[in-house]
Write the C-alpha cells for this entry.
Amino acid sequence: MHTVKKTGKLAIAAAAFVLLAACTNTPAAEPEATAAPVQTEQPAAGTPAPSQAPEPSAASSAASPSAVPDEGTPPTALEAASTVMRALENGNMDTLAAWVSRDQGVRFSPYGYVDTENDLVFRQEDISGLMKDSEQRTWGSFQGSGEPIKLTFAEYFKRFVYDADFAQDAQISLNTAEDKGTMINNITEVYPADKYDYVDYHISSIDPQYQGMDWRSLRLVFEKIGEDRILVGIVHDEWTP
C-alpha cells in the first residue's frame, strides 16, 4: 500500500514536470497582424493625382477644332486672333481652316503691302492639306532682290507666316499696326474698318545685335459678319531695305 501511494505521487510529479517543460518550450504567440490600409498607387512627387488632373492649357485648347467658339457666343477680334495664332503656333491647319471665310478664302501676303493681284488666296476646303502639298507656288517677290518667292506652302509658312514666336513674344494691338518698314502699309485700304478688324502681333527685335532691323509683324484680318469674325487675311511684315 505504501508503495502504491509513492508510485502515484511520482507519476503526478512526472506529469507536472512534462507539462511545465511543454509550456516553457512553446514560443510566445505573435500578436495578431493589423490589416494594412488599402492604398492606391501614389503618383510621383509633383504629379497630380487622377482626380486632380489639370485642365487643358490654353495652347492645347486653341489648337483643337473644338476651340472655335460655339454658335451664340461670337468672339471678339482679339479672342478670334488668339485662337488662330495658337493654331499657327502649333501648325494646326484644321483649326485654321475652321476660321477661314467660305466665301473669300484667306489671302497670304508676305509683306505689309497687300497685293490684291498677286497674293495667293486659298479656299477653306484647301487649307487642311496645305502643309503636305509639295507644289511650289510663286507668292510674290523678295524685297531687295526682286527674285520671285517660289516655295511650297510649308516653306512659305516657315518663312512668311510663323517665322517668330508671335504667340509668346509679340505686342498685340487691335486695328493699329507698327509701321517701321519702307513698304507702304495699305491694309486699311484693302480691308476697310467698317467691314474688317485686324489684330497686329509685333516683335520689335529678335536678336539685339541687329538693333531692331529684324523686327517682325503678323496681322490677322477678320471680316465682321454681325458679331462674328471670319479670317480673310494673314499679312506678314518685316524690316525691308
In short: Confidence is low (pLDDT under 50) at residues 1-67. Residues 2-25 form the longest helix (24 residues).
